[in-house]
Amino acid sequence: MTLRSVPIVDRVTDAFFALDTDFRFTYLNERAETLLKRSRNDLIGRVMWDEFPHTVETQFPDGFHHAMDEQVPVSFEVYHAHLETWFEARAYPSETGLSVYMRDVTERKSQETSLAQHAAAVEAVHDAVVTLDRNREIVTVNNAIEKVFDTERSELVGKHVETLTQLAGISDEHAVEIGQAITDVDVGNADKRRLELPFSDGYGNDRIGEFQIVPIEDDVATVAGVVRDVTDRHEYERIITSLHEVTRWLLESDDPEEICAIAVHSGSDLLDLPLSGVWLLDEEHGYLEPVAGTAGAHDEFGGLPRFNPNEGLIWDVFEAGSVERFDDLGTVDDLYNPDSPIRSEIIAPIGTHGVLMTGSLEPHQFDETDVDLISTLVENTRAALDRAERERVLRDRTDELERQTERLESVANVLSSDLKQQLSTVADTLEDRNEAETESGNVNGSDIKTDDWEFPLAEDSVTETLDRAERLVDDVREFARNAATVGTRSRLDLEDAIETALERSRLDENRVIVEQAATLRADTDRFVHLLETAFDDAAARADGTVTIQVGLLGFDATDDSRGFYLLDDAAEIPPAAHEQVLEPTANSAGTATDRKTSIDGLGLALVRAIAEAHDWTLSVDNGENGGTRLEIRDVTTLEKQG
């Protein structure tokens, strides 16, 4: 290198240095000094490998030796770890050594890396991405574009964007919207634009796409379009909206079975769940009873089973209280029915009311979205059942208040007629006696003879009359009690209760025949009062002695309502009066004299009140050979003995 050429080399923008045949520095320009962070004075005459030992492990030695030995120019890119710099090196050999030009390409390599990473990211995303130049021609597309539209990128790159909108089946009106959005972003009128439009994929399926148009910095492309398939999201929003409408239907019903039917069929229609059913807890018997099912479930299984405690996944999930998804029942142990064709299912508790189950004949048919939607459906169903339960309780309370009002009105009638009559009789008797004493002139009655005055109550003494009044007051008090005041129910022996009732009644001893020993759970005092009143009713209808037969009901295979009956041989209550004698009217309490159906107190009306307080039912009928037959049913705790 001549001295004349040095100033020119010094002015080049690339770093330049010269090496002799022993790889000693013979020259460095200013840019080389800056790049190598060493001065000319430090490096001239020194071997490159000694001054920069880190370069020994790079492409420099191989490249420079190859250029020198073969006398051919070489170029390569190398990363200098010590300098944390990427270099592009070009070496030109001569007889005296090498002329080396080096350029810092760190920024370019960083951009290339970013672009490569960006390209890899674009290819990896599920969204379809397309880039356009200023002429609206397609520069690049990613794999998602090829998959969505079932095409090759070679069919799109270089074509006008209209090629893609036509391939997507986008209407002319919406294509104009896309074109305007691209223009707005390209000329800077908007930072980005977003559109939701219908399109068709490459397989003819109607979809909804979210189109986002954004600017990009690229040597060729100026705008990128990102298409995200939001069909599932739209469908989810549609279903949620529909479920809100279903909720309105659910809350309009107060019938639990109707509510469950709405839930099941809503799941079938909205969520495409054709194999579904709802089970509600039968609190009395403690099992899950099927109350609603889809037509598909009935067709597939011929009906839904009942689940007792600890039977099957349905009971387990109900007890656990949280929604469960089973992707493959083939891997689940202890199935209720191992031969069931159902392979996957979701079981969702409806609060404490029961469960909803939906299944599929294929494994892995449900995802978290299905779980979310079913959870929403069962939560709405739970709210509807809670409301129905509250309204039922309110109705029951209202009915009970109405019954209580009627009961109190009846009590008032009884008190105003029967009790008044009993006390009036006593008062009249005493008045007659006082008048007799006055007429005789002896207030103390010491000179009155029994032959001169006959006691008006020939058949009943005053004491008996007052006893009858006291019994009436007791019956009124018993009748006026609310059903909720039933005391603790304990297990009692039917024969023992009958014996106690006989001692308190007006029925002769040994006049009750018990066919079968039995036990039941009841409020002992009130149950004995029931029997006592029934015995007194029979005694009041008898001309002489009366016999009562007590038998059990509901133990026959054809009759599942358990209870017992009392059949007497007294004068029968006429069929037309069967309902009348159960009402707490004056005629049922002892004032009827036209037929023998009267007793002291409220009679069979009181028997029914005590029965209903225990949630039992009372009916009156006639025996096959005459007499009256009282049947008390729904005594679920009644059990035979012996």
Automatic annotation (TrEMBL):
Gene3D superfamilies with a match to the protein in the record: 3.30.450.40, Histidine kinase-like ATPase, C-terminal domain, PAS domain
Chemical reaction(s) catalysed: ATP + protein L-histidine = ADP + protein N-phospho-L-histidine
EC number: 2.7.13.3
InterPro entries cross-referenced by the UniProt entry: GAF, GAF-like_dom_sf, HATPase_C_sf, HATPase_dom, PAS, PAS-like_dom_sf, PAS_4, Sensor_kinase/Photoreceptor
Enzyme class: transferase
Region Disordered, residue ranges: 429-450
Keyword vocabulary terms for this entry: Kinase, Phosphoprotein, Transferase
GO MF, one example: protein histidine kinase activity
Residues annotated as domain PAS: 8-46, 114-159
PANTHER family found in the cross-reference section: PAC DOMAIN-CONTAINING PROTEIN, PHYTOCHROME-LIKE PROTEIN CPH1
UniProt name for this protein: histidine kinase
The species this protein was found in: Natronorubrum halalkaliphilum
Source taxonomy: Archaea, Methanobacteriati, Methanobacteriota, Stenosarchaea group, Halobacteria
